[in-house]
Prior knowledge:
The protein contains 3 helices and 2 strands; from the N terminus they run ααββα. The protein has helices at about 5-10, 15-35, 55-70; strands at about 40-45, 50-55. Strands 1-2 form a two-stranded antiparallel ribbon. It is globular and about 40 Å long.
Amino acid sequence: xxxxxxxxxxxxxxxxxxxxxxxxxxxxxxxxxxxxxxxxxxxxxxxxxxxxxxxxxxxxxxxxxxxxxxxxxxxxxxxxxxxxx
Length: 85
């Protein structure tokens, strides 16, 4: 997967206070939703007019990313490849 250099630069910056506050609020809301529905393995996410069905794991990662941003941290995601036998 190729990264757009402009996109990489945008996400390498520390979040400003407005972004950190928004991330804190959304991380709290997402944590509550995940705790309220522990049996749910999928979630419906709406982005403008598009609707996506996502597995639970990316939502827990999103919660963790938002929590880090709320603490004023930049976040880097590094994919790893695990070989299955």
